[in-house]
Amino acid sequence: MEETKLASAALPDFAEPSRFRAWRAVHLQAPEGLLAKVPSKLRADIHLAAQVFPFRVNDYVLRELIDWNAAPDDPMFRLVFPMPEMLIQEDRSRVAEALAQGDRARLAAVVTEIRARLNPHPAGQLDANAAYLNGQRLEGVQHKYHETVLFFPTQGQTCHSYCTFCFRWPQFVGERAWRMGARTTEGLVRYLRAHPEVSDVLITGGDPMVMRTAQLAAIVRALLDPALAHVRTIRIGTKAISYWPYRFTHDEDADDLLRLIEEVRARGKEIAIMAHICHPRELMPQPARNAVRRLRDAGAIIRAQSPVLRWINDEADVWAELWREEVALGIVPYYMFVERDTGAQHYFALPLARCWEIYRDAIRQVSGLARTARGPSMSAWPGKVEVQGVAEVADKRVFVLRMIQARNPKWVQRPFFAHYDAHAIWLDELRPAFAKRFFFES
Ligand code: SF4
């Protein structure tokens, strides 16, 4: 990375958060404020990367999370600002050339071609996970694991800020054919009535917490239908605790949201907040801590997960601190994921062997209460594959792997082995150690 450092700058005052009820995206072209202090070379680099990767950052992230004295190497800066190295050199040159020519049509064609090569729908999520009812495919509903259904409401398919590593990036780039979304819950409810094995529904995005409470309530209340008694847990995937904690404290309908959580609990169902938290710094600002407290007081269980990412959280001490902080706040550490095989995987991914070392060295530092974190886990086509360790078996150095969750329920908990490979970053780079194929390949 070049030596450029960003000057600190006058920032908006968040002492009165009600002034910021409506979050606003800040764009690189903003003539005033902090981004004007970004050196022009770095600004141009970010502008280049943002042609391909979605970019959005709000005032709260700029003000509360990023350490501007450490940027651009600051992990929170890397979390939201796309870097040109996220593109391979050849693609960088092509985007730069199209930008320099000022030819919008050419630029759009180059960008579309690059994005299509970045594996927009990893692990078969668009087709292999599709839910069908009476032979008809349901838009915005996925059913990969026996007991869990995912629902993508169209109104929740953005986020308060975008993460540079996000595997759901195709939701944000305006390609209609790539986007998953359902306008109503009608298909979801019919599907669930026909699937009594489903105990969990995950409302996901994007970030469903960008929706107004009234919109979210319509979905949640549909799941309280007495005919859906088998749905025991409603999960909501969100990064709002980190990116816009005022969603739970000061937004106009924040209290309504908490009442909704209480209503779900009173009706005998669990409501689980599946929080994306990548770095302990996200939990340090008082507004985030207030948000956690209010959610818990309303009866929600908060579980936290993140991939392990180069540049952002690639040290065991960072994870140990994260898990300790989560437990102190009453959040359950849930997953350490491996960066998925999409988008800028080459930029963020670490070798599986390194992911496992980070997990091992972090888990050793924390008490049993924080050892609820599973991982490092790959959300791959057959299921969630955990790297359990490196061992010598029959004179071979191998990865010990386990299927935590699986497309086929019979595969769950099945251990298996792969040749040790110091460079492999994903399941498809591994070779079976004691068989011709992995058991899920036959
Ligand atoms: S908040 Fe979640 S869905 Fe949104 S950009 Fe970040 S990782 Fe992706």
Polypeptide structure, described:
This protein is an alpha/beta fold. Among the domains are: 70 residues, no CATH class; 179 residues, Alpha-Beta Barrel (TIM Barrel), CATH 3.20.20. The protein is globular and about 60 Å long. The N and C termini lie far apart (44 Å).
The secondary structure category is: alpha/beta
* Number of helices, where a helix is a run of at least 4 consecutive DSSP H or I residues: 13
How much β-strand is present in the residues? 15-25%
The number of distinct β-strands equals 14
Q: What is the CA-atom radius of gyration, in angstroms? A: 22 Å
Overall body shape: globular
Strand ordering within the main sheet: 3-4-5-6-7-8-9-10-11-12-13-14
Helix/strand order: EHEHHHHEEEHEHEHHEHEHEHHEEEE
End-to-end gap: 44 Å
Q: Which ligands, by name, code or SMILES, are bound?
A: iron/sulfur cluster
What share of residues is helical?
25-40%
Mean pLDDT: 90
Largest sheet: 12 strands, mixed
Instruction: Tell me the CATH superfamily of the domain at 121-299.
Output: Aldolase class I
Uncertain residue segments: 1-32
CATH fold group of the domain at 121-299: TIM Barrel
CATH class of the domain at 121-299: Alpha Beta
Oligomer, anyone?
A: single chain
Proper CATH architecture of the domain at 121-299: Alpha-Beta Barrel
